[in-house]
Prior knowledge:
Elements: H1 2-10, H2 19-36, E1 48-50, E2 55-57, E3 76-78, E4 99-101, E5 123-125, E6 147-149, E7 157-158, E8 171-173, E9 181-182, E10 195-197, H3 208-211, E11 219-221, E12 229-230, E13 243-245, E14 253-254, E15 267-269, H4 280-283, E16 291-293, E17 301-302, E18 315-319, E19 326-327, E20 340-344, E21 351-352, E22 365-367, E23 388-390, E24 396-397, H5 403-409, E25 413-414, E26 419-421, H6 445-471, H7 473-511
Parallel strand pairs: 2-3, 3-4, 4-5, 5-6, 6-8, 7-9, 8-10, 10-11, 11-13, 12-14, 13-15, 15-16, 16-18, 17-19, 18-20, 19-21, 20-22, 22-23, 23-25, 24-26
Antiparallel strand pairs: 1-2
Amino acid sequence: xxxxxxxNMAQISAKNCTFKTMIYLFLLATFATTALAGSIPGCPxxxxxxxxxxxxxxxHSKLDVIPITLNPAIQRLVLRSNKIxxxxxxxxxxxxxxxxxxxxxxxxxIPTKSFFHQEKLQELHLNKNKLSTISNRTFxxxxxxxxxNLRENFLDELSKGIFSILPKLEELNLGQNRxxxxxPLAFDGLLSLRVLFLDDNLLSAVPTVSLSVLxxxxxxxxxxxxxxxxxxxxxxxxxxxxxxxxxxxxxxxxGGNSFRGLVGLRNLNLADNRLQQIPTMQxxxxxxxxxxxxxQNEFSSLPKGAFKGLSNLRRLDITGxxxxxxxxKGVFADNMNLETIMLVSNKKLENLEDGALxxxxxxxxxxxxxxxFKSFPExxxxxxxxxxxxxxxxxxxxDCQLLWLLKLANQKNLTNVQCASPLxxxxxSLKSLTSDDLGCSFGDPSQQVLILTFCVSAIILLAVLxxxxxxxxxxxxxxxxxxxxxxxxxxxxxxxxxxxxxxDEYTMRTGNLPIKHIPVTEL
Length: 523
């Protein structure tokens, strides 16, 4: 291929031979010579060049300029983590490039038309540099570009039509810059854009007008900015938006109609803000929402119906809510499709009302790690439906009330639960304990139920009997008096009867015996 290209170039007439063409011929000649010698052509020290896959990787190679001696047919060029300060004319020699990574260099500016000959380039990574300005001529020639990464630079403003020459761009990353101003038409012409990162900038408000031209946008990351509220219709025109990341933005106020129009939203991240309560009414617009992340806020409880209207919710993540203490029964009454609930690292959360997690037939994964739970009533959730249960790092009190959990731990995918109390069981694994260790007299829960039922029944019976005796105490007393009087009368008559009978019996018995006469002596 190289030899043929040399022949073609040799046919160029002298009058048409420009300086650039001469350089190109020189590079090709160098490449051909090294190829015939059996070595990798023009590969700089510290680089890895592969002429079979047309990939060149020069990472941490201490390069300060873009090398010009590489194979002109390369398609993938990685120059990450070097000391390159500018994009020079070297790129014109590599017209088959499809992927370029210039991240983590010292780029300060990009001259106009630097990429004019890269019509095949699809991905360009310029993140982690020192770029402070770009214009609508910076990326001229990049007709096929689909991914542009400008993350972690010093950009502070986006002017009108700055990306309009990139008609096929699908992903644009402008995160971690210093952007304070975005022209209303800055994104004009990006008809194919689907993913936009504007997070970690200095925006004082959601750039609603600028975003409204992005009718095809599916994913928007705009967290870690300086706005504190979301006014009504903040995302107007983004009807195809599926993922919205508003995390770490300091948001304390969400308007009643802030999310209006987001009919297709599936994933919402509101974590690490300043919300005092769950925005139930505002979230109700998001009927198709499947994943909600809302931890690291300031609400103290999850009230009944907190997520009302989110009938398609499948995954809920509440992590690091430092004030969360209480979860009420019925909080998930409208969320029967929930499959995963993550309540993690909520240091004050110790109270789950009985039945708070009942009525969720699709719940498969329950993560209750690093909270303040000391015990778990069996009635809190339909435990038998779970596939995975995680309860690690809670101050669990291992007593007989957790016998059911011990049995469940041996059946389910349950992570190791360690006892925090009582003292003799501290740091012991729940799985390693027996019913006797837990202080249970009867290991079988059914026996406990029978005994408990018997005791309760006996108490109820005694209470009813006592109430009866108290209510009819006068009648009972009279009845007892009559009974005692009659008993004494009968006893006296029986005594007399028994006495009479004895004398008669004696007479009858003595009548059959010979009578002995006692002599009478006259005085």
